[in-house]
Amino acid sequence: MSDIAQCFDQLVADYYRAWFNFHPEAAVDVGVPGYEAKLAPYDDDAMGALASLLEMLLSGLDELDAQALDAERRLDYQVLRGAAVVEHHELLEQDWRHRDPVRFLPVNAIYQLTVRPVVDLATALNDRLAAIPDHLRGARAHIGALPELIPPLWLNSALAEARAVADFIRALPQQPRVAQAFHNSTRLTALTDEAAHALLDFAHHLETEIGPRAAGDFACGRTHFERLLGLRHFLAVDADQLHAFGQRLFDTTFAELKQATRALRGDEDIAALTAQLKADHPPLDDLLPTYRMQMLAAKRFVEEHELVTVPAPQELRVVETPTFMRHRIPFAAYLEPSPDDPAQCGYYYVTPPRDAAELGEHDHPGLMHTCVHEAWPGHHLQFVTANRQPRASSLPRLLNRSATLFEGWALYCEQLMHEQGFLDRPEQHFVLLRDRLWRALRVMLDVELQCRGLGVEQAAQRMQEALGFPHAQALGELAWYTRSPGTPMGYAVGWALILATRRRVQALEGAAFNLRDFHDRLLAPGSIGLPLVLQHAFGPALWREVRAEVFAPAPAG
What we know:
Helix content: 55-70%
Radius of gyration: 23 Å
Distance between the termini: 56 Å
Shape: globular
Number of helices: 25
Strand content: under 5%
Number of strands: 3
């Protein structure tokens, strides 16, 4: 190993050893021990120390000759530097403590201990639960200082989350894994009761004291949005180019969707065909078994057709969405395993429907698409593959994921499985296009919400008109769109970039092209910004051609 490689490795190790003190939940998620008993600090001293740490890292990186690093470390360097610049700007320019009450809630801090490998679960739970009341008392001072900065949509999200998490924490003593680890049941019950009470008090404070004055703007602004595009996702485009891509994709997809509707029912009534499909669903008591069956069918298809290398060992559990998550996961979602999990066990969450309308969202054609997206060959395969690759599972890559890769891959997989014959029902082409239309709209909304002054109600109306979403579902979507700038656009952008890359690689390689090899090369670098992956796996020249193809305006006429 060269001297500069050793210097870089030491810099990374020293940095994260300190950084995890400010982000202990991230340490647990990536399997780094020693932080599982802590909640994230947020006082002024901690924020100042974090800013200094980021500045020291950036100074240290600047002193290194990045070009002298090997290709894998150079990739880590780019990801790490981009993340540090983004976090430093957010820390100094957008103090979340006055704007986002959701971030004070110890949701993941408690839940992750129940699903991640933790050496001493009892001690970790004891210390984190015991810290919650003081943690939330301190939070009141920050959110109460400038309540007019809090966006009402974020306040409502915090209210729902605090109440749901209180119920989850109260039920912890009934969880077998927790009960087995925590031998003093009386102590556990006292801790959970006190923590739940603190959460409900916090929710009451938000509702009565903060809610009437909450009137903040959620938008991060064009400058920061484009910083995210460049330094988190490594897209060399501006907000206007991104929006134009979304508009073009929306227009072409809408035309194709109307054509598919005509082929299936003789008219262009997309809403009527959607309603017709929703009538074809499994019975409620057979919902999870149907998801399990289709998930396994998709896995067998991937293996039999050798579409991509299937990692082993791995496990995927199809389970009901935990109650406290259901306001954020209306239908289905995925939780990836931590890198240190020897079984590589992921969770495929399915939210039980509350009524007939919600059950209709789990229609058979759409359910198969969801299994492809969330499981095989989508998220589960991709994340387990990244965890099992030594370089892809470096800390800079594990901690700085980009939706252009992991969501772009999952959306691409839907098209792949349609092309290969797994999603072969006639109506599944309609489902494919309808879901692509949704992702195209996300691109435009991402830009307009963050950079162009689009309001929540205007955006919700757009979603209702274009996608037929109920108002409540639209608001649920927008709650996370507004809190995660740059993520909603990742699905469609990633899909388009992967597809364009495949076409060009196939044209270059001709008869020698192998689909499994292409996919394996694509997934090997990990879950980071897709443009970096494409340059690393297929070369800078090909990336420039792909970028020009995807983001260049269509020729006139």
